[in-house]
């Protein structure tokens, strides 16, 4: 089902932000639409219950922002996010969850989302999210920020128990921000070759075979 915002708008103003909500339920769409009208932001908000219908519409008119709910009916929301990122690489993608934890948030971001929202949301958070979406800036709601902070606090204890050196802990922290040799090298002011060696040793110490797995273990969300 597609629900269009048909409320009156000045004819000389085009929508500041075209938002598409992919969700089995209408709750997120109704709340988002209510907040944007309350703050006077001339956003155009649409709702799609099925990904296949959304894709058909996006091929005609690509939205600026796509919010994918974890309750999406056809297929998993992570697969949907990855597909949309490949098809529309410049679109701002957000994941909306009712009870997602740090693991769900991490998986969403690695799937290509630039924002993660958990319900219930305060109106102030929606306003901040819309601002970030307009400027293509990452956004995490306060609850998700708190979850990540707690995960990172615990990661220090986990690293020391697994016998990682201080340098290896720095390498792991850098991997979270950029998993490439070049990214780690720039963050730690070392050569890419040295960074690669450090990363190899970290994977060996943790007993994992991929950088993504190392990050998940570091954050305690595997």
Q: Helix segment count?
A: 10
The CATH level-2 architecture of the largest domain is identified as 3-Layer(aba) Sandwich
Spatial strand order of the main sheet: 1-3-2-4-5-6-7
Number of domains: 2
Number of strands: 7
Q: Summarize the biggest pleated sheet.
A: 7 strands, mixed
CATH class type of the largest domain: Alpha Beta
Radius of gyration: 20 Å
Helix proportion: 40-55%
- Uncertain segments of ≥5 residues (pLDDT<50)? 1-14
* CA-based shape: elongated
Given helix and strand content, the structural type is alpha/beta
Strand content: 5-15%
Per the CATH scheme, the topology name of the largest domain is: Rossmann fold
**End-to-end distance, in Å?**
35 Å
Topology as a string of helices (H) and strands (E): EEHEHEHEHEHEHHHHH
**Mean pLDDT over the full residue set:** 81
What is the CATH superfamily of the largest domain? Response regulator
